[in-house]
Amino acid sequence: MTQSLPVRLASIFAFCVAVGLSGCASEKTKYGDARGVETVTNQFGSTDLQMIAESMTRSMVNAPVVAAGNLPIMTVQEVKNKTSEYIDTRAITDSIRVELQKSGRVRFAADAAAMDQQVEELKRQQSDYYDPKKSSEIGKMVGAAYRLEGNISSIVKEAKGVKDIYYKFNLQLWNIQNGLLEWTDEKEIRKTTSKT
Amino acid sequence: MKLTVLAAILTASIIVAGCGGNKFERPGYAYGCPTGDDKKIKSKEDLIKAKLEVAGSLPDIDVVDLRCSDRSALLRVDMDLKNDSKEVRRIAYRFRWLDKEGMRAWDDESWKPLLIYGKTLYTVTTMSPSQEATDFRVVVMDQDK
Fold first, then answer.
1. Domains of chain B in sequence order
2. What are B47-74's pLDDT values in tens digits?
């Protein structure tokens, strides 16, 4: 079936408009520097997380209980989010744990979050499917001597188009046996956004 | 007489103490900082030049001093940055850690933003992340652009 000239022209015109419109809405995606300074908004971001983790780790490896070189066993407890925004504090403690473990100066015992999977795996290895001589035994887990806990708080102020956010991250290393605070440090971050 | 001898001993002690910083340096170190096989480092300026990498241009900001010391088998580094302009300047920096063979000893650090007020000095302090990280370079870049 052949179309008349006006219909053909209308179809070509519609096609060109569609192509033009889709061109306007095109997106560009680029890879960026995962470690770069991120200032897209003034909310808690990747740079804040990385700076906190690095600062806390470098400070903690100097603490006498860690610097003594006895490879103290630690466990990570909760970092309370006392700010008004959502912050994945587990991401912060995970980064701190990665850096500390890589430093080769501490060891980590299974924390409360990993306990269920740890127990499940131990129980699984006690089943008839496993060689008892090569299975991990129940009752051999090692408890941590120190626990890490902390909190992050913020003060937000806004006036005349200027928004100021002050974050304070505090981390503490407690001796589980005697309840003594073995090390603590904090990192402060200030971010100010003004409308231009 | 006694006073003259005492004065001479005191002067000699001061001279020896003054020169001691560089005279008893370990091999492969200059001003307390690791230098590896680099024999060209004869002054603090040479040391800063060897350790500093500027990403792009960095007007008005100078690294004026670099100090290193061993702390619990880790390397502590203090770097003094001076803002020569009257304005507040924003920069970012990070350290690159190398092992004794010059290989990368640690993942890339995050860039750390830093504000330096006009005509002031700011000291950046850091520790090496592990015992394998025995040498370093510091990279600085402008954030005001």
1. 27-142 (2.60.40.3230)
2. 999 999 999 999 999 999 999 999 888 9
Q: How far is B51 from chain A (nearest CA, A)?
A: 20
ipTM of the complex: 0.80
Residues of A with CB below 8 A from B143's CB?
Answer: 37
| pLDDT tens-digit map of A94-108 | 999 999 999 999 999
Residue B26 scores a pLDDT above 90: no
Quick check: B127 and A33 CB within 8 A? no
- Dihedrals φ, ψ of B92, to 5°? -135, 150
Q: Is the pLDDT of residue A91 over 50?
A: yes
Distance CA A50, CA A62 (A): 19
**Size (chain A), residues:** 196
Q: Say whether pLDDT at A12 is over 90.
A: no
Among candidates A171, A152, A154, which has minimal Cα distance to A42? A154
Instruction: Give B 3-42 residues with CB within 8 A of chain A.
Output: none
Any chain A CB within 8 A of the CB of B108?
Answer: yes
- Chain A, residues 63-82, CB within 8 A of chain B, namely 67, 69
Measured between CB atoms, does A94 come within 8 Å of chain B? no
